[in-house]
Specification:
Blueprint (H helix, E strand, L loop, with lengths): L2 H5 L4 H11 L4 H8 L18 H13 L5 E2 L12 H8 L2 H4 L11 H18 L3 E2 L6 H15 L5 E5 L4 H13 L3 E5 L10 E7 L11 H9 L3 E5 L18 E5 L15 E5 L12 E5 L5 E5 L22 H39 L3 E2 L7 E5 L3 H10 L2 E2 L1 E3 L3 E5 L6 H10 L33 H13 L21 H4 L5 H4 L11 H18 L3 E3 L5 H18 L7 E5 L4 H9 L3 E5 L9 H11 L3 E7 L11 H10 L3 E5 L19 E3 L20 E3 L41 H34 L18 E4 L1 H7 L3 H10 L6 E2 L6 E4 L7 H22 L9 H4 L4 H5 L9 H5 L19 H6 L22
Parallel strand pairs: 1-13, 3-4, 3-5, 5-6, 6-7, 17-18, 17-19, 19-20
Antiparallel strand pairs: 2-8, 7-8, 9-10, 11-12, 12-15, 14-15, 16-22, 21-22, 23-25, 24-25
Length: 949
């Protein structure tokens, strides 16, 4: 059976039934009516013929075999590690974990929220700071976020110091992002001390890229004396042995958790982290998991403060991060749980012992090293770096050559004594033992990770059961459809998921020499070509490691294009109210002024308001950002007209491609007016969402913008000490190919569906959305529709009038859906008081009808309130959701029965999900901010809880 028939939910009879309901004879007729003819492409994209699942894997195996897996001793922020098999199989490769959505509905996300809270607690304990976020995208962009955080906190400073000892990719990305928001950048060797005023802060390496350890305490004190802040970049494994940066005054600590069990993945995805001092907690970017209570007074986790969905703040946002690296953060957190503090310390001590023995050996052989103090990386100087690197490569080893006369050797978890012998011999040395090379005053005194969770789950049986316990608390795609609008949650094909953990893909260092990465580069080149063909653009870059970063890359390309043409005054970006929230946030980070264009009554762009804004801002217009189809769930028929007007005003057109699941194969943004677009591989192109990431946000551009695509962060022309030359792009992520490790998933999806299959997937997404809109129209009015009353691939259900007459809010409906076994649609975005529904093409008719039946029954429950049969305060909706504990309790103080609460429709008796907590009290959690693991006694259920506390 062809893969496409496995991917599409409705079979032929179901499709016919759905078409009859929406009033069309065929899927083609429906699409022809829904998508404006003026944007339609003349022919299908030219992709290869669809492959079977087996043939696609065979082709991927061929690419994998073109790579050469070297034993990695390269370092530079990426270390070889060992992923425990129980974590790989029980988390990374388990659909209950990788198909989950971001935990915006906390009642059905307690498992992954607990895992992320473990991650935060781990980082807090290691860094010595009181609060950490639930992951950032990568180490380099985390450094950029830290610079932005310091700039927001130190209003008078406009100069940031970057330690020249930082990894090159960290220097380059942080410098480029800082300059984009008009911060003056100075690259210095921080060990020489600091001079001058007007400082907002410094980013300090602890340890340096060549391995040296420097005590930053005096520099941090000097920064504080000048009113500036200190960010420290550090390796979390080193903090098992090194003193915590928080103990000597660091305000912000960032780094990568990659070496906590996450494969090299040719550069990503890897979870970065950020921990901050208490005074900075409300300015911290990224997501923050906090502890609150539920309606029964029990502890319950949820996303805290403004981090729940900061991009909804649009132009007032301080970060545009939407997708982070939740799945990889969870792997890292479980790695710490499984090994515990003693196990982690043994790994760190072993790594350090190997490095110390190597250093002593080469010194004994008469060689020089750059520093006597180090953790895992030893840099030998005064040698022929090219010949040594080549000799070791022939022996199967990868080391880092720095200039003509330095070689760095960085030891990871997988390094062995036998490896040490080989490495030493190439340097003309024999292995000798050595004492620790960590300065005595920087040796860690207080043991980290003393929390209960890191000290009780160390057997495989315990870990297997812990992972299952957490997964069972959650609703993911393996249990139910996730009908979230604008966040496509479609099938993640298993055949596409399997290859990412093959060693020939997962075990490649991102800076390995090109002759060893031919397979990766062949796959990437072919995949970028396919995306260019699908979008109609001249070239694609897959470097951005999230959709938000793709947006930023595209906007920076537009800004730099104008500057290169002498149009330095073009700093206004027009953003329709119907655009994705991250658009405005990304524009702010690109230092562009946001001007909102109003929405017409039908949900489309208000062209008259657009004309007024163009007239007002004229030569200041850099461009417009259009989400197509819009977040209002409609195909704007005037999109070409809008593009033409902006082009006539001298602006560029950014078409947000996050909703490509509605037009792939039918229309190409590059053909109907776009100059640049990003895509979300974790949506249209089937990379799993993973509870909040990984994501990949490729950016495509027209020919004239090619020079401004993201630059290689380790490219020879990238100099952090000076602004990027006019006419070039700037780096966005830590590596040239971003989160390459998950690209085989999207490659396999396109290989298995081909051109016709990709178009068929879009058509069925449109069919599913219109079937739901038609079926629920009488119960919940659809807010916006397009041509002939049709919607695109999603629809907005308007509850505002029902709320006025009943008191029932869209949030109430979201919570009640949990009792029916459903994840809620998108709540209150882009319009407050509404629910946005997107079924995707992967859901069969039975699942769609199950959702429709649930929504109709909830509408009947609302009607009981409207008719006065029950008050809102006493209704089942107001008190939803219900745990199994609450339903079997001897105390039941409600006017409705247990059966109505738990089994509102008969089908639930066969397959019932019970949430682990009652409705979470969001306000309580914000008033009582706790963002680390609570003690075990907090979960003592031996005492009675207080219902409706």
């Amino acid at each position: 059976m062809a893969f496409l028939s496995r991917h599409l939910g409705p079979n032929a009879p179901e499709r016919a039934s759905m078409l009859e309901a929406v009033g069309y004879a065929s899927v083609e007729d429906l699409v022809n009516a829904a998508i404006p003819q003026g944007i339609r492409t003349a022919a299908l994209p030219q992709l290869p013929d669809a492959l079977s699942e087996e043939a696609a894997q065979d082709k991927l195996r061929e690419y994998a075999n073109h790579n050469v897996v070297l034993k990695s001793f390269y370092g530079q922020g990426f270390s070889d590690t060992l992923t425990p098999a129980v974590i790989r199989r029980g988390l990374l490769e388990d659909a209950g974990w990788y198909t989950a959505y971001t935990p915006y509905q906390p009642e059905i996300s307690q498992g992954r929220l607990e895992a992320l809270l473990n991650f935060q607690t781990m980082i807090e304990s290691l860094t010595g700071l009181p609060i950490a976020n639930a992951s950032l995208l990568d180490e380099a962009s985390a450094a950029a976020e830290a610079v932005g955080l310091m700039a927001r906190s130190v209003k008078k400073g406009r100069r940031v110091l970057l330690d020249s000892r930082l990894h090159p990719q960290v220097l380059n990305v942080a410098a480029a992002r800082a300059r984009a928001i008009d911060i003056e950048v100075e690259v210095i060797d921080i060990r020489a001390g600091i001079v001058g005023e007007d400082l907002l802060g410094a980013v300090i390496a602890y340890t340096g890229t060549e391995g040296d350890i420097f005590d930053p305490q005096s520099v941090i004190s000097d920064l504080h004396a000048r009113g500036a802040l200190a960010t420290v970049v550090t390796d979390p494994l080193s903090l098992l042995l090194l003193e915590a940066p928080g103990s000597f005054g660091a305000d912000v600590v960032i780094g990568s958790a990659q070496r906590f069990g996450v494969p090299l993945f040719f550069g990503g995805p890897h979870a970065a982290y950020m921990a901050v001092a208490d005074k900075l907690k409300r300015k911290m970017p990224g997501r923050l998991v906090g502890v609150s209570i539920d309606a029964a007074g029990r502890p319950a986790y949820r996303l805290a403060l403004q981090t729940r969905e900061q991009h909804i703040r649009r132009e007032r946002a301080t970060s545009n991060i939407c997708t982070a690296q939740a799945l990889l953060a969870n792997v890292a957190s479980m790695y710490a749980v499984y090994h515990g503090p003693q196990g982690l310390k043994k790994i760190a001590e072993r790594v350090h012992s190997l490095a110390s023995s190597f250093a002593a050996s080469v010194l004994d052989a008469g060689k020089d090293i750059v520093s006597d103090s180090f953790f895992d990386t030893v840099t030998v100087s005064g040698v022929d770096s090219a010949s040594i690197k080549a000799e070791l490569q022939d022996l199967g080893y990868l080391v880092r050559a720095i200039g003509p006369d330095k070689v760095s050797v960085s030891f990871g978890e997988s390094a062995s004594q036998a490896d040490l012998v080989v490495l030493a011999e190439v340097f003309g040395a024999e292995v000798i033992s050595a004492e620790s090379s960590i300065p005595e005053k920087l040796v860690r005194e207080q043991a980290p990770l003393q929390e209960d969770i890191f000290n009780r789950i160390h057997s495989e049986t315990q870990m297997m059961r812990y992972l299952r316990t957490l997964a069972d608390k959650d609703l993911a795609l393996d249990r139910t459809m996730i009908p979230l609008g604008s966040c496509t949650m479609k099938l993640n094909p298993t055949a596409a998921m399997e290859p990412i953990s093959w060693p020939e893909f997962a075990g490649i260092h991102p800076y390995a020499p090109e002759e060893t990465t031919a397979g990766w580069r062949e796959l990437i080149a072919e995949f970028e070509g396919w995306l260019a063909e699908i979008t109609g653009y001249a070239k694609i870059s897959i470097q951005p490691n999230a959709g938000s970063q793709g947006e930023l890359a595209g906007l920076l390309a537009i800004r730099r294009y104008h500057v290169a043409n002498g149009d330095t005054g073009r700093d206004v970006v027009l953003i329709p109210a119907s655009a994705h929230g991250t658009n405005a946030a990304s524009a702010t980070l690109a230092n562009l002024r946001v001007v909102v264009v109003a929405t017409a009554d039908d949900g489309s762009i208000d062209v008259s308001d657009l004309d007024a804004k163009i007239e007002k801002y004229g030569e200041h217009i850099a461009g417009i950002m259009i989400t197509y189809p819009s977040t209002h769930g409609v195909f704007d028929p005037e999109v070409r007209e809008v593009c033409d007007k902006v082009h006539a005003a001298g602006g560029q057109v950014y078409i947000d491609g996050a909703n490509m699941n509605a037009i792939t194969g039918w229309a190409r943004p590059g053909d109907f007016g776009g100059d640049v677009s990003h895509l979300n591989l974790h949506k249209t192109f089937t990379i799993p969402h993973g509870g909040g990431g990984p994501g990949v946000g490729p950016v495509g551009v027209a020919k004239h913008l090619i020079p401004f695509l993201p630059a290689d962060p380790n490219g020879p022309g990238v100099d952090p000490a000076a602004p990027a030359p006019v006419g070039t792009g700037v780096p966005i992520s830590s590596t040239k190919y971003g989160s390459a490790g998950v690209l085989p998933i999207s490659w396999a999806y396109l290989a298995m569906v081909g051109s016709a299959g990709a178009a068929d997937a879009s058509a069925h997404a449109i069919l599913g959305a219109n079937y739901i809109a038609t079926s629920l129209q009488e119960s919940f009015p659809v807010l916006y529709t397009g041509n002939k009353g049709l919607v695109a691939h999603e629809c907005i259900l308007d509850l505002r009038e029902l709320t006025e007459v009943s008191g029932v809010t869209a949030a109430d409906v979201a919570k009640r859906l949990i009792d029916y076994g459903f994840h809620a649609p998108t709540l209150a975005f882009p319009v407050a008081g509404t629910l946005m529904v997107e079924p995707t093409e992967s859901e069969d008719l039975g699942e769609l009808d199950r959702f429709i039946a649930a929504m109709r029954q909830i509408r009947a429950e609302i009607q009981e309130i409207i008719e006065g049969k029950v008050s809102y305060e006493d209704s089942v909706i107001h008190h939803a959701p219900f745990t199994a504990e609450s339903l079997v309790s001897d105390t039941w103080d409600y006017g409705f029965g247990r059966e109505k609460a738990a089994y509102p429709v008969p089908a639930l008796r066969q397959n019932k999900y019970f949430p682990p907590v009652r409705r979470v009290d969001e306000a309580y959690g914000d008033r009582n901010l706790v963002c680390s693991c609570p003690p075990p006694e907090a979960f003592d259920y031996s005492t009675d809880s207080t219902e409706e506390n």
